[in-house]
Amino acid sequence: MEWRDEGIVLGTRRHGENNAVLEVMTATHGRHLGMVRGGRSRRQQPVLQAGNRVELLWRARLDEHLGTFQVEPLQHNAARLFESAAAVHGLQVLAAHLRLLPERDPHAGLYGAMAVILDHLDQPAVAGELLVRFELMVLDELGFGLDLSRCAATGRPDDLVFVSPRSGRAVSREAGEPWRDRMLALPAFLGPGSRVGAQMQDLDAAFRMTGFFLTRHVYEPRGIGEPEARSGFLTALRKHYAATVAEPAG
Asked: What is the pTM of this model?
């Protein structure tokens, strides 16, 4: 059996003396593993760095086998990303989220979103907004999607400032005010049709919201914890925004 596809490298692990097991997120075959013969060689190692986009040829005798990859580079992202703390942590977060999904289960939307995020992952102000939207997509793909399009109580799409922790649905300011202490905040940049940019306090609120639902629906039922890289990514964002505020005018 064989197929060709493009993919994004998530990571590798050693396999014997000279080979490597490559983990990639592919465009049409989902998250997939395969052995790369000579993957630890000087020629192959730069190609197999996390974040790189590659062309793949996978072969195996049976579909359920690990199989082997032949890999050719399409876009070298790793060197650029490794220069940014936010990008390094962000890449690890993306990989951790994709590992929540079944192996070889196609998720073309997530692959496309990841490709876009990689182009901006070393731009912290943009990366924060994109990554929190990626977390919303992951929740949706896992069957726990949030409805942030209209108020759960009134059905109206305007003035949405809360999210119900019970239903995962947006709630308007007026309808949610009596229970505001029990609600999660919905930052304006995640509202329907919003063109508002996010500040650090907005990103903190957004990641608090997605983190709440990831913990409830995914981490706790599976007996796992939130990936450490997620807090590292938020720390890198806070440092970026703090440095931006500290810059002198002009």
From this structure: 0.94
